[in-house]
Amino acid sequence: MAPEQGFPRIRQRDIPRHAAVVLVRGGVEHPEIDRIQAQDFFDRYPAWGRFGLSAYYAEDDAAVDDLASDLLERFEELHVYPLGILLAAGFEVVATFRTPHVTIAFTDLDRGLQLLDEAGHQVVPNPYHGER
Amino acid sequence: MSDQLEPLDLLVDLNTMDETGLPWAFLKRAIDPARIIPGSHIIVGAGKVRAVATVVDVVDGIVHVRPLRGPVAQHRHLLRGRQAS
């Protein structure tokens, strides 16, 4: 189904929400980048009314490894957030665009970025980064 | 020169994806929008992250890129109008 103008495409099938699910993002090291991207997402999809940051869900270590070697190969470090921690912090986690992409959505830019920074997560090196 | 020090052509958070399945950015995030031409190769990224990418299209001020695997140095020959380093 085509998305309405001003809305991101939300997949009909939600992501799994069991305790082992994590969200993985490539680390960019500069908080200002997250601010710019969250604002750009808002500006691109204004009818949805949410700031958003991209992440990818994984149900186990093998799925994290797949992300590290493919979609997130470019990143030296990966930030791995337990889904439950982000939901408990008040974020919406929405299945957007193509599997396994999700949008971490929030309505207060400053607060959302602060909460994401404070949310418990692991920072792990990407063993596939820099491979030729 | 390490990839981290390469100047960007276009600020792109390579975490992003949209309906196309590709990373995207607004054209206004380009250092020189005139360089952002479909089919050309440019340096994209954000923060410490760098990649050579193909510009796929520019539509309504939105740029889609397809990053190439491997470090920038591996693809430097694709970057026209840049000084080798």
Q: How would you sum up this structure, described in words?
A:
- The complex is a heterodimer of chains A (about 130) and B (about 80).
- Chain A has about 130 residues and is an alpha+beta fold.
- Chain A has one domain.
- Chain A is built from four helices and six strands.
- Chain A has a six-stranded antiparallel β-sheet with strand order 4-5-2-1-3-6.
- The N and C termini of chain A lie far apart (about 40 Å).
- Chain B has one domain.
- The model of chain B has no long low-confidence stretch (mean pLDDT about 90).
- By secondary structure, chain B is mainly β.
- Chain B is globular.
- Chain B is built from no helices and five strands.
- Chain B has strands spanning about 10, 25, 40-45, 50-60, 60-65.
- The interface between A and B is medium-sized, with 30 and 24 residues.
* Largest interface by Cβ-Cβ < 8 Å: A-B, 30 and 24 residues
Could you spell the SSE succession of chain A in H and E letters?
EHEHEHEEHE
- Strand proportion of chain B, as a percent range, falls in 25-35%
Show unreliable segments of chain B: none
Alpha carbon gap, first and last residue of chain A: 38 Å
- Overall geometry of chain A comes to globular
Residue-averaged pLDDT of chain B: 91
Largest sheet of chain A, if any?
A: 6 strands, antiparallel
Q: Give the radius of gyration of chain B.
A: 12 Å
Strand arrangement, major sheet of chain B: 1-3-4-5-2
Number of domains of chain B: 1
Strand order of the largest sheet of chain A: 4-5-2-1-3-6
Helix content of chain A: 25-40%
Can you give the helix content of chain B as a percent range?
A: under 10%
* Helix and strand sequence of chain B: EEEEE
Shape field of chain B:
globular
Indicate the structural class of chain A.
alpha+beta
Number of strands of chain A: 6
> In angstroms, what separates the terminal alpha carbons of chain B?
6 Å
Quaternary status: heterodimer
| Low-pLDDT runs of chain A | none
